[in-house]
Structure formats: C-alpha cells, structure tokens
Amino acid sequence: MLISISNKCAYTCPFCPFKNTGEAKISQEHIRNLLEKIGSIEDIILICSEWYSKGYIDSLLSVCYDKARKISLFLPISETKNLLKQRKILQSGFVSNIVFIMYHETTVPENDIYTLLSSMDVDIGIWFISELNNSSYRTFQEVFPVVRRLGLKIWIGETPYSYSNSMDPVVFALRVGGENIGLPYSSRYGYRISRAYIDDYPVSLMIRPPVLSNILYLSPNGELAKHPKSQFKVKIEEADIEILRKIIFMPENLPLSEFIFIPEVYVILREELKGVEIDPRTIQLLEAIQIFNSLKVACKSIGIPYSSCVEKISLLEKKLGKKLVTTIRGGKRKGRSYLSELGLQILETYRKIIFKINEDLAK
Predict the structure, then answer these.
(1) pLDDT of res. 23
(2) H-run or E-run covering 319
(3) Which InterPro entries does this UniProt record tie to the protein (predicted)?
(4) pTM recorded for the entire structure
(5) Count of CB atoms situated within 10 Å of the CB of 215
(6) Distance (Å, rounded) from C-alpha 95 to C-alpha 151?
(7) Which one, of 189, 157, 9, lies nearest residue 82 by Cα?
(8) pLDDT in tens, 275-311
(9) Angle formed at CA 157 by CA 45 and CA 84, multiple of 5 degrees
(10) Which residues of the chain have pLDDT under 70?
(11) For an engineered disulfide with 100, which of 25, 77, 181, 307 has Cβ 3.0 to 4.6 Å away?
(12) Which of 63, 27, 28 is nearest to 44 (CA)?
C-alpha cells in the first residue's frame, strides 16, 4: 500500500507523480478507516511527504503499525536532518526501512546517516534516480564510494512510481560499470528486482513491471487508485470491500502517456550433447536460489508454488543426469539450498548472454 500524506515537497525529482498544484493533507481518520476495511497488509510505504510534527508522525505510524507487517519511509535525502530531530519516534520500532531518494546531490550527509544507523534498528538505503545522461553518471560515481563505505543498500531506478520511459536502471548500471546483471528474482515496492554488482558491491535494479497488480495508492486528497496516474479513482468514503478488491487485484496497464517499445529477449539454453533445453523461468529460479540460499524462499520470490519448483528442478536434473541444487539436511545450515557446480555454470552462461545483449542495447 502506497500512501502520500501530502503533496507538499520541495524536492525536484523528474516526472514526480505526487506533487500537484495546491496543498492537500490526508487525515489520519481516513487512513484508520481504510485499514479497518482492508485488515492486515504486507507493506505500507509512506512516500515523499514533508516531515511533520512529532505528534502527527507518532500517531500516524502507530495507526499503520497496527495493520502492517512492515512500514517503509521514502524520503528525499534532504530530509535527513529533520529525521534526526525525531529519531526517538523511529526507535519505537514502527519503521522497518528508510529509503532516501537521491537525484542531483553530489554529496551524501554521511554524519547524519551514520547517526541514524547507530541509534536505531532500521534498514537504510539510497534510491538513486537513473537518468540516462553524463551528469547523472558522474553524480552516482561521486556518491557511490560514500554509500558503499556506510554499507547502505543501493536501489537504482526511475523516480519512484513515475513510470518514465527516459530512465532505464539496467542501461544506467552498465554505464556506471555494473557487472553480473542477473534476471529479476523477486519484487519489492511494486517493482521487479534484478541484482548487479558495481566494484563487487551489490546493487538492486528496480525494473517496472509490465502491468500493475497488488498495489493500492491513497492520495493526499483521500482518493484511492492503483497508481498516482491512474484514471480510475474512488473517494475513500465511497470505497466498499468490493471496490477495494477491484483496485488491488485487477491488473492495470502502466499509465504511460506515449508508446514505449521494450525489447523482449527470450533466450533458451540447449545442452549440446543431450539436447536438453533450459527456459528463462528455470534460470530465474536458479538465480533466486543463489541469492536466497533457500529453495522455498526462491519459489515464493518468483511466484511459483514450492511443489512446482521441486518438480521443475528434479525433472531437469533427471534429463541432465546431474544435480543442480543441493539442500543441507542437518546441522546449523539445515534447510539451506545451494547451486551445484553445474547449476552455477548454467547461470553464468545465461548471464554472459544477457549481459552482452544489454551491453549492445546500452550503446
């Protein structure tokens, strides 16, 4: 669930879908009533709103915490000092993740972030907006060493939820030295995630999905929609449980204002001696297993039932005559799964092919 408390923000993210003329601010009563209708929810994202008074934020987080498994804050990097003033609220345990959005800054407020890291148990990361121009590449290369030194998570993507066709995280990663770019292995914040490495440091590439699903957006005006740019909007007061289900679960095409043509490359690996074919979905599963070291988590992350995953891996192993995945049955690492040498070989072969394709597209 995506909540924009207010459309008042002094930051200048390109193609921002949240800032509008005039001012609006959602009431906590609206949020409380909506959450009562929905029941429990996986993740609530409070996005890009000015940091309000201690009492307002404390009460808001308390309302959300009662219904959400995780609460994430998306804030401009310029808000670190305001966040520090109220870090006692964050020490309450309400917030799981803080994502600072960076666009054109060439410096990271290192001392402020270090204080936040040392004073609370919360994951902190940087979402770097991936405009495809030389200025953006230089800015990233200037701030990357600091972010790496702090040990922060790095997300590379478009302005969050802007669905801009001028920002491609894969091309951006390649142009700033990204290597070992993998297949999408999971989803987060409504985006598909692909892993890449820059100077051996992991970064997450936030790739927009072809259609939107399982997302609910609440605007500062008290309107519910799939997305800030959606045409179909409903006032909270008019939304019953059936309307909520329709918004959340009905797939919706991306709200784009112009045609975008995206190359879809379907690469199948074929083992030369036995003629066994390995499709991209299976390779995506191998990618997820390598990242999570868990077959169950890997299956869940790519949306395949566990029994189907086991059957898919077992059938391929039978055809090849060798193990692809090894699962530890006892000891401290019980239940962990690892790719065999053959599994790693398949994954690396596929990565090289996809890297070459992406590299050519980025030229």
Answers:
(1) 64
(2) helix 306-320
(3) Molybdate_resp_trans_reg, WH-like_DNA-bd_sf, WH_DNA-bd_sf
(4) 0.81
(5) 20
(6) 19
(7) 9
(8) 999 998 999 999 999 989 999 999 988 888 999 999 9
(9) 50
(10) 10, 20-24, 49-56, 89, 91, 165-166, 254-264, 330-331, 361-363
(11) 77
(12) 63
Asked if 227 and 217 count as a contact pair (C-beta separation under 8 A), the reply is yes
Judging by beta carbons within 10 Å of its beta carbon (0-12, 13-18, 19+), is residue 200 exposed, middle or buried?
exposed
Give domain limits for the chain. Answer: 2-253, 269-362
Q: Which fold has domain 2-253?
A: TIM Barrel (3.20.20)
Lookup result for tokens 């297993």: 289
- CATH number for 269-362 (one of 1.20.140.10, 1.10.10.10, 3.40.30.10, 2.130.10.10): it is 1.10.10.10
Query: What's the burial of 48, exposed, middle or buried (CB within 10 Å: 0-12/13-18/19+)?
Result: buried
pLDDT in tens, 185-211: 888 888 989 989 999 999 999 988 777
Question: What single letter denotes the amino acid at residue 14?
Answer: P
* Dihedral over alpha carbons 252, 255, 259, 264 (to 10 degrees): -50
Contact 182, 65 (CB under 8 A): no
**Rounded to whole angstroms, how far apart are CA atoms 316 and 300?**
20
